Amino acid sequence: MPDTPVPAPRGTSDSVAPVLEAVGVSKHFEVRNRGGNNAVVRAVENAGIALHRGRIVALVGESGSGKTTVARILGRFYAPTEGEIRLHGRPVAAGGIARRDYFRKVQLIFQDPFGSLNSLHRVRYTLGRALKLHGHARSRREVEDGVIDLLRRVNLTPPEQYLDKFPHELSGGQRQRVVIARALAVRPEVLLGDEPISMLDVSIRLDVLNLLAKLRDEEGLALLYITHDIASARYLCDEIDVMYAGQLVEGGPKEAVIQSPKHPYTRLLLDSSPDPGRSLAAGSASEGLFTATGELGEPPDPADPPTGCRFHPRCPFAMDECRESFPERTEFPDGQWVHCWLHQKGRAHLLAPAPPAQSLKETRP
Amino acid sequence: MTDPALLQVDGLSVDYLTPQGSARACSDISFTLRRGEILGVAGESGSGKSTLITALTRLQRPPAVTSAGRIVYHPADGEPVDLVAQSERALRRRRWRQLAIVMQSAMDCLNPVMRLGAQFTDVLRTHDPSLDRAAAWQRAGELVRMVGIAPDRLPAYPHELSGGMRQRSLIALALACDPDLVVMDEPTTAVDVVMQRQILAQVLRLRERFGFAVVFVTHDLSLLLELADRIAIMYAGRIVEIGSSADLYHRPKHPYTKGLRDSFPPLHAPLRELSGIPGSPPDLRDPLPGCAFGPRCPRAHAACEQAVPPLRTVEAQDVACVLYDPQNPEATAHA
Ligand SMILES: Nc1ncnc2c1ncn2[C@@H]1O[C@H](COP(=O)(O)OP(=O)(O)OP(=O)(O)O)[C@@H](O)[C@H]1O
Ligand SMILES: Nc1ncnc2c1ncn2[C@@H]1O[C@H](COP(=O)(O)OP(=O)(O)OP(=O)(O)O)[C@@H](O)[C@H]1O
Ligand SMILES: [Mg+2]
Ligand SMILES: [Mg+2]
C-alpha cells in the first residue's frame, strides 16, 4: 500500500466566508407519547455549523443525538423551529432562495445505497436524467459524455463497463459511487453525507472515503460527513464537531479534538472507540475516567432531556451549574471550542492532560 | 499453561442447498477453542461467519446442511461428544446449560409479550426444576445486575427497555445457566460505541469470574483486536488465517488479513492514505479452482490458481496462502 502521508488539513478558514451555514438552529418535533399525550422531542437545540469550500466537517455523536436532523435542516428537508440557514451568507428561509436553485447547490447523500437508486433504471438513465433535469446536458451526445465524465470522477472505470448496469448488478460500494455521481451531476457546491459508508462492507469503505477526499481536494466541494465512527472522521475530515442529545458540545480542528478533547463526552467517545494501535501497544493500560461498574449510564430521552448540559447525568465532573444551565462557548486559540462548565469555572485541569485510555482487556478487577 | 480444549472443530463444511444450486458457505473449517478463551471471527459480509456460528451451536435450519466434519465438545464432567451426531433432544439439554447464544438482534431473541423477569425464570427453571419461583426471580435479579440493569426493571417488557439494555439482558440470559461456551453473533453492532464498550467490559469481567469461552463474530476487526485472545479471519467460507490478536495486528501473514487490518483508520497513530480491498467477494455457488481471494489479491501469481491452499503453521499463526508454501519459488522471494 502507498505510504504517502495524508494531506495536512488546511488552516482554519475563519477569514473565508462559509458556503453553507446553520446559525442557531433548533428542531422540535411534536410527537404523541405512550400515554397518548402530546410531547415535544427536542432533537436539535441551538446548533451552529459552517461548511467551507474545499473542507470537510465531520459531525459525530451517538444514535439519536440529532445528526440526521441537522443534515435535513441543512438540506432544506425540514424548516428549523428556530434559527436560520445561510447560503453564501444569504438566509434561505421563505422567499430567500427558491428550493430548486437551492438543491442545485446543496445535495444530500443518504446512508442506504440500496434504497436510494431506482432498481428499474440503468446507470446511464439515472445519471443522464440528473444531468438533463438540471440543464447541464441537452443533446444525446452531451448526455453520454456527461455520464461518462461523472463515472470517471467517481472512479467507476472504464465507464463503458458501468453504463448499462442495473443497481442490483453493482456492489454496495459501486452503488454508493453511482449515488455520489448522481449528486455531482447537479454540480453542487455542498455535499451532505449522512453516514454514506455505514451500510458498506468494511473493505470498501475507504474507497468511498478516498473518493470524497478527492472531490474536496480537486473540485473544492464543501462536505458534511455524518458518522458514528470517529476514526473515519479523523481519516477524512478537517474539522470534527461533536453532538450529544441535540446539543453541539465541542468542535474544532480534528487533531485538536482527538488528541486533546475538551468535553467529557468527547473523552468518553474517544475512550470507547476501538483503537487496536492503542490497546495492543505494550503495557499502555491505565484506568480510564469512566469505569463501567454498577449502573451504566443511559443516553437521555429526547422528549424529556436533562436540564442544563444534557450530559450531566453521565458526567463524572457534574457540578450544580451543569444541572442548571447550558454553558457558554469557550474558545481556544487553535479554533477548538467547547460548551462545558469545567472551562467556565477554571476546572479544566480535571480533563487534561488526558491519561492513556483504558484498554478493554485491562478493565478486569 | 494452555487450557484444555473445549471445542474441537474438524473439517466442518456447511452447504446451502437452493434451487439455484448449492453454495458452500463454510468449507473445511478446523480450529480448537480452549476453555475460557475468546475466539474472534472476522470477515466480510457473506464470508460465512453466521453460518459457522449456527453450525457450531447446531441451530442451523434448512436449506443449510452440515455436509462434513465434526464438532467435538468436551464437557467438564464426562466424555467428549460429537455435536454433529447428536439428536435434537440431546442438544436441547445442552443449550443454555452448556452452549448459549447471543444473536445480533435482541428483539428477535427476547419474547416481546413476556416480562423480562419471566424470560429469565423460564430458562432458569427449565434447567433446574428444583428452583422455586421466588428463588428464580432472585437469581434473575442477580443476573441483570451483573450487566448493569437494576433488578426493579425485571417486570418490564422488552420494548420498554433501551436497545443497549435489551442487548445486555440477552447477555445476562445467556449466562443464566453458567454455560461453558457463549457464542455471540454481532452482539453489539446495533448499539453505540460507548454502550458497546461497557457491554464488552462486562463480558470480559464475567468471563474472568465464570470462566466461559466465547466465540465472537463481527465484521469489526478493530474491535476484535482489542477483545479477543485469538482471531480467525474468514474469506469465502474458509479460515484463511488464525492467530493471536497481537500477531494478526502486528504481523498479519495473509494478504487478505493485511487488507482488512488496513481498512480501519487509526484513532491516534499517524495517518497515512489507506486503500481497503478493491473488488468484491466471489460467488460461493461457483468456486474458483485456486485461492478464492486471488482475483482481489495484490500478490496473486500463477501458483494461486492451482489449488486451494491449506492452512499451514507459519511462525505463531496458521495461514492459508501459497506465499508461505516452501515449495513455491515465489514464497522464498517473500519470506
Ligand atoms: N420526524 C421526526 N419526528 C419525531 N421525532 C423525530 C423525527 N426525526 C427524528 N426524531 C427524533 O429526534 C432525535 C434525533 O434524531 P436523528 O435521526 O437526527 O438522530 P441521529 O443522530 O441521526 O441518530 P442515528 O445515529 O441513529 O442516525 C431522535 O430522538 C429521534 O427519535
Ligand atoms: N438461507 C440461505 N440460503 C442460501 N444461501 C444463504 C442462506 N444464508 C446465507 N447464505 C449464503 O451463505 C453465505 C454466508 O452467509 P453468512 O450469513 O454466514 O455470512 P456472514 O459472514 O455472517 O455475513 P454478514 O457479515 O453479512 O452477517 C452467503 O454467501 C450467503 O448468501
Ligand atoms: Mg441518523
Ligand atoms: Mg452474519
Describe it for me?
The complex is a heterodimer of chains A (365) and B (335). Chain A is an alpha/beta fold and 365 residues long. Chain A folds into two domains: 214 residues, P-loop containing nucleotide triphosphate hydrolases (Rossmann fold, 3-Layer(aba) Sandwich); 97 residues, no CATH class. Helix content of chain A is 30%, strand content 20%. Chain A is built from 13 helices and twelve strands. In chain A, the strands form two sheets. In chain A, strands 6-7-8-3-9-10-12-11 form an eight-stranded mixed β-sheet, sandwiched between helices. A four-stranded antiparallel β-sheet of chain A has the order 2-1-4-5. The longest helix of chain A is centred in the middle third of the chain and has 18 residues. Chain A is globular and about 70 Å long. Chain A starts with 19 loop residues before the first strand and ends in a 21-residue tail after the last helix. The relative contact order of chain A is 0.13. With 335 residues, chain B is of the alpha/beta class. Chain B has a domain of 231 residues: P-loop containing nucleotide triphosphate hydrolases (Rossmann fold, 3-Layer(aba) Sandwich), CATH 3.40.50. In chain B, 30% of the residues lie in helices and 24% in strands. Chain B is built from eleven helices and twelve strands. In chain B, the strands form two sheets. Chain B has an eight-stranded mixed β-sheet with strand order 6-7-8-3-9-10-12-11, with helices on both faces. A four-stranded antiparallel β-sheet of chain B has the order 2-1-4-5, covered by helices on one side. In chain B, α7 links the parallel β7 and β8. The radius of gyration of chain B is 21 Å and the shape is globular. At the A-B interface, α7, α8, α10 and α11 of A face α6, α7, α8 and α9 of B. The complex binds adenosine-5'-triphosphate (2 copies) and magnesium ion (2 copies). The site of one adenosine-5'-triphosphate (ATP) has 13 residues of chain A, from β1, β2 and α1.
